[in-house]
Prior knowledge:
The protein has helices at residues 7-20, 32-71, 76-85, 92-101, 103-118. The chain contains 5 helices and no strands.
Amino acid sequence: xxxxxxxxVARNRRKKILKxxxxxxxxxxxxxxxxxxxxxxxxxxxxxxxxxxxxxxxRLWIARINAAVRAQGMNYSQFMYGLKKAEIExxxxxxxxxxxxxxxxxxxxxxxxxxxxxA
Length: 119
């Protein structure tokens, strides 16, 4: 009776890892052990950076809003507090886009926030 080895299962497992390592340079794309190490590191970085991307975009949007609001003579925290008091629920992504592409409507929002702060 022939010896049962883990042939097709092991080969498929290795092929899966080597497929994920496609595009890596040198031994990292051909040698299974090095490819596995590189792929595991890459997957960890991908998981971490999916979270970091959200933080970075939020920081970018806040910086853009702050720059646009300061041109109107306010600061970011006053502007956001005024919008909250006026019950305007626009997220930072939309506000940032408005600050870049629709300066007139953004200026109107700034005036609304200023009016709420003085009231």
